[in-house]
Each structure stands twice: as structure tokens, then as C-alpha cells.
Amino acid sequence: MTETMLVTGGCGFIGSCFVLQQMHQYPDIHLVNLDMLTYAGNPDNVKEIADDPRYTFVQADVADRPAVEAVFREYHPTLVVHFAAESHVDRSIDGPDVFVRTNVLGTQVLLDVARKQWQEDAYMDTARFLYISTDEVYGDLPIESTAKFTEDSPLHPSSPYSVSKAAGDLMALAYHRTYGMLTLITRSSNNYGPRQYPEKLIPLTIKKALAGEPIPVYGDGLNVRDWLYVEDNCHAIDAVLHHGTPGQVYNVGGDNELSNIDLIHLLLHALAQQTGKPEQDYTKLITFVPDRPGHDRRYALNSCKLSTSLDWTAGSPFMDSLMQSVSWLRGSW
Ligand SMILES: NC(=O)c1ccc[n+]([C@@H]2O[C@H](COP(=O)([O-])OP(=O)(O)OC[C@H]3O[C@@H](n4cnc5c(N)ncnc54)[C@H](O)[C@@H]3O)[C@@H](O)[C@H]2O)c1
């Protein structure tokens, strides 16, 4: 039977990977992709399925209630996966307003329109809503600690971005508790892979290196992130959407902790191998710049709940997937 899924932000980095995976995995799906196409959204990210009759694209703002209502009235989705967000911490420091509008108001509008439509259609007991959250809602850990955040760790977000994501995350949980909606949350660590907008660390490093421009590194470069391959994250999202327990949060970590400077050296080594240029031509471009205000030191997630209850693992070998991502990104500009 055809099931209609609404994906928001499906022209962005992770959303497009999820859209492509779903279209390949579920022959009977009807997938509606609602995306406003901000600077971070690129329709080419999903061009290989754009003409598929099972796919519908709607250009709209998640915070525009009449536009979202029109989508629910026309397509009656019974699965919602909400990726759409302003996603760059630096931009949230320069201008937080749009982060509150999209990530907080937009999430509440989407939840509320879904709730009303599902009540009217008598889908409240079956339709599911997955909010894509982030490890950044937990705040950071000291570099020297070996602790990892669990789903029960308190929320201590640091930047306007992570605060806006935490607000959306808690709003989704409130719609479960208050209205009985079947909402679920994934909180993932930093994703890497193809189709990422070149303002984020990995594509930015590669783009600058190829252009022979300074490669900026914040502060001492020792901030640690846990890297997760985007395809593995999308498998986790699929598992939680279909089999997770409503009202629950699932951490999705990659178990690949690296300091920013070590990651940059790995990327430049890979680039030198792939282009045949001396590695020194790239490493000499590394330029330390003043630290980002409030820069989180270390993120680390415990994903045991997801692996034990839903049998998920971050299965992609890190170095292979990273090399493939470098190769893909290198060919994309
Ligand atoms: N990238 C990561 O490492 C990471 C890690 C954890 C969580 N997340 C979360 O995953 C989700 C996707 O992240 P990403 O890196 O793919 O983001 P992205 O910036 O690459 O893509 C965001 C997408 O949302 C769309 N969008 C933005 N504002 C919109 C609006 N008002 N209405 C409709 N569409 C809008 C954009 O056009 C774009 O296609 C976000 O919610 C983000 O917080 C990302």
C-alpha cells in the first residue's frame, strides 16, 4: 500500500541523502519534499529522482502555516521527517532571528498542522513524526574527559543554533506528552559525506585547499567532534521512524572522535593522494584564526540505546567513507 511521507529540508545535505535512500528502499512510497530552498538547499542534490512519479517537490517555508496546511490537505502524509533548519552555528551567532523563526516556530507550525490533520483523518494512533535534532543540545564535554552523553543527559545548549534546535526537540516531545502524537527524536553527531554545503568544516577545507586559499582553523584546533557517515545516519533515522518507541529520544553517534586539526590533516593527506600534489602544498595553507565565541570543546554520544533496541550500527568504515566523500566533494565544484 502506498504511504505518503513528508520530508522537510530534503534538498539539504542530510535530507537529500534520506530522500534518495527512501526512494530506493521503498518502491511503494509517495515522498513529498517540502523545502524553501535557502542558500543551503540545492534541488540538484535530488535530481536523480526529481522526475519519479512517486516524488513531489513543494517549495515552501515550514513556518508559513497556510502553505504547510495546504500540503497536508492535499497529500495527507502519515509519516513526517523534519530536517528543515538553519544549520550553521557561525550564522546563528551573526544573526539568530531566522534560527528562531525556522527552527522553533517552523517546528511548532509543522507539529500543529500535523496534529490537526491527523485528528481530522483519525490517524493520531498510527501517523509518526520524527524530529531531527543534534548532539549539540547537550552542550559540550571537557576534552580530557572520556564521558559520553546519553539520552538522559541534561540539555545545556551553547549557541543560538543549538538552543533553537533544543526548543524544537522539546516541542516535539511536548506534542507527544500533551496531545498523544507519535513523535520521535534522533540526536546525531556531526555528519560527513557528499552534498554538504561548503561552509561546514570538511567541504570548506577541501574547497579552500583546492583553491590554494588559507584554510581557517578556529582557536587551537583541538575541539573534538564525533564523525558519522551521513548514509549511516539516514539508516538510523529510518529505523527510528518505523520501529522506535514514540516519545523517545535516540542518540546516533559515529564513534569516530577526532580533533578538528587532526581531521584537517587527514583530509589534506587524502587530497594529496587523490590529486598527486605534495601534501605540503596543502598543509601550508592551514591558518589558525580567533576562536568562535562560545565554541564547544568536545561532543561524544553514547548510542547504546539505538544499537541494542533497534539493532543499528554505524557500519561504514570511517577511512573508506571519508576518502569517498573527499573524492565526491572534490568533483563537485
Ligand atoms: N549536518 C550535521 O552534521 C548535523 C548534525 C546533527 C543534526 N543535524 C540536523 O539535521 C538537519 C539537516 O541538517 P543539514 O546539515 O542537512 O542542513 P542543511 O543546511 O544542509 O539543509 C537544510 C535544508 O533545510 C531547508 N530549509 C531551511 N530553512 C527552511 C524553511 N524555513 N522552510 C523549509 N525549508 C528550509 C534548506 O533549504 C535546506 O535544504 C537539521 O535539522 C540539523 O539541525 C545536522
From TrEMBL:
This is dTDP-glucose 4,6-dehydratase. InterPro entries: dTDP_Gluc_deHydtase, NAD(P)-bd_dom, NAD(P)-bd_dom_sf. It catalyses: dTDP-alpha-D-glucose = dTDP-4-dehydro-6-deoxy-alpha-D-glucose + H2O. Keywords: Lyase, NAD. CDD domains: dTDP_GD_SDR_e. The keyword Secreted does not apply. Gene3D superfamilies: NAD(P)-binding Rossmann-like Domain, UDP-galactose 4-epimerase, domain 1. One of its GO terms (biological process) is nucleotide-sugar metabolic process. It is an enzyme of class 4 (lyase). Its EC number is 4.2.1.46. GO terms for molecular function: dTDP-glucose 4,6-dehydratase activity. Its cofactor is NAD(+). Belongs to the NAD(P)-dependent epimerase/dehydratase family. dTDP-glucose dehydratase subfamily. Residues 6-318 form the NAD(P)-binding domain.
